[in-house]
């Protein structure tokens, strides 16, 4: 087995154990292999090991890599999306996890409609109000949710967050709890289902699963270290 296949298997086992520990079905947690900065040859090793869903944070990288790999892969955009790139990227991606403003939601809705698509989206929440990160503040999301839910060409899956990085993974837990509780509150007040919680990365995905994550985004633990951490925004 390649080291990527070995890593993938280990992560899948850890996802399944974490799910069972919380009395959850392991199939209720999806693994996104975050392949940003890694070339198509490396991604192909993961594909050969059976991985189909990949996360990328830059439109340019999706545009460059997708044509080199099987059309059956599911690309998830997990980084900030500029409005002027929506038209290019929508036909290539399975879901956008980083919808961080009402304006962007409206652009994806309008362009998705023009392209005959119904884009799957997660609304990104900047829980710690970090100036280096994108996302709705909690107040902005409460205010905008009704308008977002009226955009009928959007298939709103749920919420996404990136907690402030701390090597102590336990420090992420309160943000995962906060995202889940915010989801529960918004489902009650807004009436729209938000079943998806995109949360958990290499160092804290087991805690995210314990707190209800339905999609974990794991890069380093599968593909190894990238050049810098500054790429998580
Ligand atoms: C890079 C990135 C990840 C993966 O981070 P790792 O620590 O390498 O697992 C997850 N989510 C987002 C939004 C990212 O940008």
Task: Walk me through this protein's architecture.
By secondary structure, the chain is an alpha/beta fold. Helices cover 39% and strands 16% of the residues. The protein is built from nine helices and eight strands. The chain has helices at residues 3-21, 40-48, 59-65, 86-89, 102-114, 138-149, 173-190, 205-210, 220-223; strands spanning 30-34, 53-56, 74-77, 93-99, 120-124, 155-160, 196-198, 215-218. Strands 7-6-5-4-3-2-1-8 form an eight-stranded parallel sheet. Strand 1 (30-34), helix 2 and strand 2 form a beta-alpha-beta unit. The longest helix is centred in the first third of the chain and has 19 residues, at 3-21. The structure holds pyridoxal-5'-phosphate. Residues 34, 36, 57, 78-79, 162, 201-202, 217-221, 231-232 line the site of pyridoxal-5'-phosphate.
Computed Rg: 17 Å
Spatial shape: globular
Residue-averaged pLDDT, rounded?
96
Distance between the termini: 33 Å
Q: Tally the beta strands.
A: 8
Helical segment count: 9
* Biggest sheet features: 8 strands, parallel
Q: Report the order of strands and helices.
A: HEHEHEHEHEHEHEHEH
Which ligands accompany this protein? Answer: pyridoxal-5'-phosphate
Query: In percent, how much strand structure appears in the residues?
Result: 15-25%
> Could you name the ranges where pLDDT drops below 50 across 5 or more consecutive residues?
none
Structural class: alpha/beta
Helix content: 25-40%
Architecture blueprint of SSEs:
Layout: H1 3-21, E1 30-34, H2 40-48, E2 53-56, H3 59-65, E3 74-77, H4 86-89, E4 93-99, H5 102-114, E5 120-124, H6 138-149, E6 155-160, H7 173-190, E7 196-198, H8 205-210, E8 215-218, H9 220-223
Parallel strand pairs: 1-2, 1-8, 2-3, 3-4, 4-5, 5-6, 6-7
The structure holds pyridoxal-5'-phosphate.
């Amino acid at each position: 087995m390649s080291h990527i296949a070995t890593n993938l298997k280990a992560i899948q086992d850890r996802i399944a154990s974490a799910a069972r520990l919380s009395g959850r079905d392991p199939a209720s947690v999806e693994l996104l292999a975050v392949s940003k900065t890694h070339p198509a040859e490396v991604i192909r090793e993961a594909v050969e090991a059976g991985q189909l869903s990949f996360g990328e944070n830059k439109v340019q990288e999706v545009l460059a890599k997708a044509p080199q790999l099987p059309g059956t892969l599911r690309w998830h955009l997990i980084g900030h999306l500029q409005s002027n790139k929506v038209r290019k990227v929508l036909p290539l991606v399975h879901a956008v996890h980083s919808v961080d403003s009402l304006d962007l939601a409206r652009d994806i809705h309008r362009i998705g409609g023009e392209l005959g698509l119904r884009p799957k989206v997660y609304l990104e929440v900047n829980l710690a109000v970090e100036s280096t990160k994108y996302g709705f503040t909690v107040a902005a999301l409460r205010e905008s949710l009704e308008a977002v839910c009226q955009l009928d060409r959007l298939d709103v899956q749920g919420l996404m967050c990136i907690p402030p990085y701390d090597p102590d993974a336990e420090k992420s837990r309160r943000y995962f709890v906060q995202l889940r509780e915010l989801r529960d509150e918004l489902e009650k007040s807004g009436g729209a289902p938000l079943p998806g919680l995109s949360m958990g990365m290499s160092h804290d995905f087991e805690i995210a699963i314990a707190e209800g994550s339905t999609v974990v985004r794991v890069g380093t633990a599968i593909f190894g270290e990238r050049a810098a951490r500054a790429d998580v925004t």
